[in-house]
Design goal:
The protein contains no helices and 11 strands. It is mostly beta strands and 123 residues long. The strands form 2 sheets. Strands 2, 4, 5, 6, 9, 10 and 11 form a 7-stranded mixed β-sheet that branches. A hairpin with a 6-residue loop joins strand 4 (33-39) and strand 5 (46-51). It is globular and about 40 Å long.
């Protein structure tokens, strides 16, 4: 069982940066693949970035490549999403998710979800 709590969202101007955090509880956190998703108003939830349990493998949606960086601190049971060069199109609720598939890749079955954190980018 894994419980996830996101933080770090807020209001930022276009071109700015935010770092989202996802604190996880559960003894087996280190074995889970982790990812960030987002959902904008009126749109479907979409994959943003994923990281494997080993931290060796990461994957990104095309819109995130070069701007977003996913990382995880096993000792702190925390996953991060550093977001740079933000644009109004990045406005969404961002969710942290965990999968028993250790890859954290976009096709993995993400069983555990956080409550989400709002990111709003003003123009």
């Amino acid at each position: 069982q894994v419980q996830l709590v996101e933080s770090g969202g807020g209001l930022v101007q276009a071109g700015g940066s935010l770092r989202l955090s996802c604190a996880a509880s559960g003894r087996t956190f280190s074995r889970y693949g982790m990812a960030w998703f987002r959902q904008a108003p009126g749109k479907a939830r979409e994959f943003v970035a994923g990281i494997s349990w080993s931290r060796i493998s990461t994957s990104y949606a095309d819109f995130a490549k070069g701007r977003f960086t996913i990382s995880r601190d096993i000792a702190k049971n925390t996953v991060y999403l550093q977001m740079d060069s933000l644009s109004p199109e990045d406005t969404a609720v961002y969710y942290c998710a965990a999968s028993t598939d250790p890859s954290g890749a976009v096709g993995a079955p993400f069983r555990y979800w956080g409550q989400g954190t709002q990111v709003t980018v003003s123009s």
